[in-house]
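Fold it.
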Amino acid sequence: MTYRMLASGLIAGFAAGLFAALLHFAFIQPALLVGELYEQGKIVHSTSAGSSASDNHLMPGHAEPATTAPATSDQPQAAPVDGHEDHAAAEGETPTWKRNTLTVLFTGLTYAAYGLFLAAGFGLVGTWGYEVTPVRGILWGLCGFLAFHLAPALGLPPELPGTIAADLRLRQIWWLSTVLATGGALAILASGRGGVLGWILAGALLAAPHGIGAPQAERFWGVAPPELGALFATRALGVALLSWLALGWLAARMWVTTPEAEHRPARA
């Protein structure tokens, strides 16, 4: 059982992490890099055309215009990010190749951990006679996405760099509580046990974190335009959904095809 869990969880998880990294580079990183340019002040969020220059600094959600930014440019152009390792190193920034390598490793390890959670779940329900199939694995992946991403995003959506937010520790506690509550509710619903009381308990677990409410900042503002933040959050959730579906399918397929390690007596 342990061998099967490790093979299914780690291998399938890291493979899904590589898939997630490719999606990250294609969809998330372009928006992320532009958000970092706003955070560093290299480009600024322009105000509405009808506002006067004296009122710009009073408008919430808009950064003050930089002195070097062209006044007539409404669509800022992001600086190229490839092929400038020496320039980035001179400014103390992480080189592109190193950043991308760390992204791949971090994403792979993250989904390997998710894969271990799925494999542990497969082993647990297998003792109750539940048959794991690749199709059911996709449903497990969907539940993982709901618990780890979508439910927490209802209170704490993915944020661009430079976005104002509440205290980090409070957000971490709320996120973990939401994941546990949502996962417990989905487990109760999937088991089909408990009758009406089970449905009531599952509904209470789903609603409890959002009834309490996620920690929020006292006021909202940021240096990047809200349209960019919405694009980033949407793409982050979309990539997470596709990655979790791939993880569930791969983990279930490897669970079915991976035999248990044979126990042989040790040689004297």
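The chain has two domains: 1-46+82-163+223-261, 166-221.
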